[in-house]
Description:
The complex is a heterodimer of chains A (729) and B (169). Chain A is 26% helix and 25% strand. Chain A is α+β, with helices and mostly antiparallel strands. Chain A is globular, with a radius of gyration of 26 Å. In chain A, strand 18 and strand 19 form a beta hairpin. In chain A, helix 9 packs parallel to helix 17 and helix 16 packs across helix 17. Chain A has a 7-stranded mixed sheet, with helices on both faces. Chain A folds into 3 domains: 173 residues, Aldehyde oxidase/xanthine dehydrogenase, molybdopterin binding domain (Aldehyde Oxidoreductase, domain 4, 2-Layer Sandwich), CATH 3.30.365; 193 residues, 2-Layer Sandwich (Aldehyde Oxidoreductase, domain 4), CATH 3.30.365; 237 residues, 2-Layer Sandwich (Aldehyde Oxidoreductase, domain 4), CATH 3.30.365.10. With 169 residues, chain B is of the alpha+beta class. Chain B folds into 2 domains: 74 residues, Beta-grasp domain (Ubiquitin-like (UB roll)); 80 residues, [2Fe-2S]-binding domain (DNA polymerase, domain 1). In chain B, 33% of the residues lie in helices and 11% in strands. A 5-stranded mixed sheet of chain B has the order 2-1-5-3-4. The chains are: A alpha+beta (729), B alpha+beta (169). At the A-B interface, helix 2, helix 4 and helix 16 of A face helix 1, helix 2, helix 3, helix 4 and helix 5 of B.
Amino acid sequence: MSAHLKQDKPDTANRLDQMKQGTIGQPITRVEGLAKVTGTAPYAAEYPVEGCVEGVLATATITRGQVVSVDRDSVMDMPGVIAVIEDPRMTTRAAQGTANEAPQQSPRTVCYWGQPVALVVAETFEQARDAAKHLRVEYREESDAPVDPQVVDAEEQEDETVRQGDLARAMSAAENAVDVTYTTKGHASAAMEPHAAIAQWDGRQLTVHASLQMLNYNITELADALDMEEDQVRIISRFVGGGFGSKLGLSEETVAAAIAAMELSRPVRVVLSRQQVFQCIMRRSETTQRLQLAADGEGRLAGFGHKALVSNLPGESFAEPVLQSSHFLYAAENRELMLEVARIHRMTAGSVRAPGEAVGMPTLEGAMDILAERAGIDPVELRLRNIPEEDPEEGLPFSSHKLAECLRQGADAFGWDAGPRKPRMTREGEWWIGTGMASAARVHNVGEAKARVTIKPDGTGLVETDMTDIGTGTYTILAQIAGEMLGLDPAQILVDLGDTQHPRGSGSGGSWGAASTGSAVYVACQALREEIANRVGIEETALDLADGRVIGGQTLVDLLGGKELAREGHYEPGAIAEDYTASGFGAFFAEVRVNHFTGETRVNRMLGAFGFGRVLNHKTARSQCLGGITWSIGAALTEALEFDPRTGHLVNCDLAEYHVPVHRDVPDVDVIMVEERDPVASPLQAKGIGELGMCGGAAAIGNAVYNACGARLFDYPMTPDRVLAAMPD
Amino acid sequence: MAETMTVNGSEHPIPDDPRVTLLDFLRHDLRLSGTKKGCDHGQCGACTVIVNGIRINSCLTLAAMHDGDHVTTIEGLGTPDAPSDLQRAFVEHDGYQCGYCTPGQICSATAMLEEIANGWPSDASNDLEGPVEPSGEEIRERMSGNLCRCGAYANIVAAIRDVAGEPKT
């Protein structure tokens, strides 16, 4: 039996707050924790499959053109080589998130350096790797493929364009105006687990163990790529070693493994090398952004301009949504926003953690810091003065809005000095010390989701959905939601995820998993509660469940009488999405030290205060915030994709040359989670949290760099060479 | 005599193909997939194992180089029924998220605490001689070869400090 909720209006019932189990929000440890720390949690490439052979992708060494020939004979005589798979159904890019159709296929057409062109299969990994390296591929290269976003005519993304009032006039009339241009370098997701798949074909059914974030879309994408029916395909992703957007869409190794398994009638494993993950999955686009702020003497914004240039391959729908939160973060009557895309032949640009705000917020919040200085207003106070009453473009109410609370609580906990600010006030030896802050904002999303919840005759629970847990804590919070609603200890609930044979969840991406799939679990549990109340003979609203029984009454085991009870929950976002603007908000505070002679920046301490609706588990939610803040440090100081200006190929394609933060880069970090219930966000009153922690944090660090040493930088990341160049004498 | 290595107490013949890394030997031949491959180039630390008491990146060494060696992997440190102190502390402090770097972090931390106990200095040490305190900065410096992209560092350090702070029995 199925229960359905389409959320057309705010849910102010706050049902979870009325439940009696007392597990929701509690900082319980992850239910899969022991499996992870003992190495017994299986990731995609690790399933023991008898007779599994190994595939390694061969990738293009030209930027644009055609594969004329793949010389199978060049490797077929090498030891252990079984086949060279070259098939027009093979995919050449990862699908964009929620694409729901096969990405670009036909590997004979090359669109970027590093694109997969063939798969070499051998008995062992060492043999396949060697053969893939020796595979001779002949190309007909088309010269002069554009690879520099600054030299092509960019396409305006018209649905992003906003023109309200007269920004130019507001700028010239402003008492305090800021007009600055920033650049940000591209980013890589760099999830620790490389993309991997094991495909098995029994003549009728294809089963793939893969490392993917959104199985509900990925199964459609895979079936479409292979021209098969969805019921012939099963994808399993029980553990995903990080995603950060890079595993939203079906990726090349999964399709290649599937085709090879079907052609060879043997199980085939394909694992991308780290270099291939960098070069043929997804990059976050580099950006160039112009910020215009027109303020009166009190710092109140009358004009707001944000224009951004990003890039992608021809034909790709995705454009880094740089302006996403700029549309509603600060009030200003005169507004101009515009996003442009340059079509170039670098690898595919797509979602990397917090697409849009991850690079849009650091520039906006850098410009706000300049405005605060020009207007002589404390940076926290400047933000407080510019919080809009309603969405300044759409005129919509906010679903709930905790920016002011985050700013105040964060400033208080950090010990923010609201007095006059000037660079170079503190020096310890070679090091300048300074502080900075920034606002955080990240739009809230929800998606359609289904989940089945069963109460077993023995009184234990089972939650089934194809939702994934990519490290976010899904296993645990779904057990807590079901436990709270059904009066069960989460330890008594088995959460079975990552299998397309289960009801289709939302998938993990865009911070929407908890609110979407959690709501499907909630809907299923609500239906179960109605059935239990019915059996007890009371109204559902009067039903109090805890520790496996009706409080003061029968146990669930007795009520079930030896039979299990199951309901499927189906949650859909409704009209409410059009009626409100929903976002998570927050504030970052950072203290840094900058070396006067080397330009090196170290983060001494950092604090984030966030409002994202109901906290489903204080431990895992805090960890999501810590993760985002860690990414903020990388975006501020070290992370930058570098492309060869001749071929457009990604040069720093490994973890030695692309610098993610390491242990010593990350200091003690404080996280404040501001109490909030968002009735619009979901029937759980919860919003997304996986990305908010990096939406603006880089600016808190950049602003602190300025406050420390007087170097005002307009280019992220703020590497030592750039800091030194901007350092005053 | 056949060449062998001892892994978690069991003896195993060295593989024939000299190209097989210790990492692939563990993951593939022995099906000890708790040791992870993150980069295959010694850049991420996910493949950290303990060889004769010293932590190393198992992707940077060939299986054929370990005749007679004693290798301890994450499976040898503890099990879900009997986890080691560090394994338990990682769960308690949420010192992981996706879990993929976790076995490497724990193997690395296990050997790292021995290095501190033995007084090995690091870049974060004030002095090259004398005892080393397991401070946050010492731990961060010594664990910097183990990347965590989820950004669980603060919790990982808390977990390690929790164990390092306990009196040795």
